[in-house]
Amino acid sequence: MNIPLIDLKKQYLYIKEEIDNAIQNVISDAAFIGGKYVNTFEQNFAKYIGIKHCIGVGNGTDALFIALKVLGVGHGDEIITVANSFIATSEAITMTGASVVFVDCEEQFFNIDVNLIENAITEKTKAIIPVHLYGQPAEMDTIMDIARKYNLFVIEDAAQAHGAEYKGCKVGTIGDLACFSFFPSKNLGAYGDSGVIVTNNDNLAKKVRMFANHGRIEKYIHEFEGVNSRLDGLQAAILDVKLKYLDKWNQRRIKIAGMYSEGLKETLMTPYELPYAKHVYHLYVVRTRNRDKVKSMLQERGILAGIHYPIPLPFLKAYSYLGHKPEDFPVAYALKDEILSLPIYGDMPDEEVNYVVENLKNILKKHMI
Ligand SMILES: Cc1ncc(COP(=O)(O)O)c(C=O)c1O
Fold first, then answer.
1. How far is the CA of 344 from the centre of ligand 1 (A)?
2. What pLDDT was estimated at residue 92?
């Protein structure tokens, strides 16, 4: 049996007719940039999240960059984020001219360790970007308390957490602004790059919309310089079809995660869920010794596992100028050799899940890992 980390072809075949029609409608209407398909998706996604404004942008990295820019972040500012994320989180910070300040992650949940945030705050700190990593919400109550105490902005990086909940609230509704990516492999994925910024703040929403569209509201009336980062009609129409299935696919991910955890709990460290959160399992990440050996043995059996991420951000060559040492981020540093993402996607059948469980158990038992 061959099991990919995620199977996007299977998902397309499941909704082929609706997707094909949606694409055809956009082309027939020549509604390529802006227009009704973008407006409809923005409204529907805002409704789904339970927020006032949703503004489409080109991708999740742009969403973070634009969110920082409209908050006035730039040279001389410091922005705090977590050591274990995708580089987009920190890249967006330095793209504004601000400095990135990394904080280690928490051992059990893999999200930013909120007990370390206050130590990282200086008078230059302007915002915190918590990442809802792998689909599990960061500890938002504490983060918001710290932000209020030090008068900081909070931008949620919700790129991996469409539909995740923290104490009954969907992620994206808690910070000043939140950013979602619709990279194809995300829980809600487009057929190319795209993203959105969501907020309840009217003023910030207006600025975001203008900044993402060359600093204008009306054609050729530019109030300031912005960027060209827009959600296009085709992606919006595709996303609008897929949004209807998001809860169903997330439920299936949660079910698969349960099957994995039940089957594997005796043999390795399965993910820990915050009791008051809804984890939507963008990734199902276990911890094991001899991770690289386990990964290649799974591959020999047709199972493609992943590593998210093999090098924590502070130790990437891109950030060597910060001069960080392993002891600065001991948890992220230790996790990098142990984490393994097992295949998971919204249409993954039980047989595939069971095949992964059985093979992984056998590998761990036979090789005494
Ligand atoms: C945590 C995180 N932040 C930001 C991004 C950036 O999104 P995009 O690839 O759409 O630019 C991603 C996804 O790739 C991500 O996983």
1. 18
2. 98
179 and 302 inside one domain: no
Domain boundary among the residues 215, 243, 271 is at: 243
Last residue of a domain, one of 243, 273, 290: 243
Kindly tell me if the per-residue pLDDT of 88 is higher than 70: yes
Residues lining ligand 1, CB < 6 A?
Answer: 59-61, 85-86, 88-89, 131, 157, 159-160, 181, 183, 193, 195
Where does residue 276 rank: exposed (0-12), middle (13-18), buried (19+ CB within 10 A)?
Answer: exposed
pTM of the predicted structure, to 2 decimals: 0.98
| Opening angle at CA 308, ends 304 and 312, nearest 5 | 145
**Alpha-carbon span 53 to 367, nearest angstrom:** 53
Number of domains in the chain: 2
What is the domain range of residue 269?
A: 246-366
Average model confidence (pLDDT) for the chain? Answer: 97
Residue 179 predicted with pLDDT over 70: yes
Within 8 A by CB and 6+ apart from 16, the residues are: none
Looking at residue 217, what is its pLDDT? 87
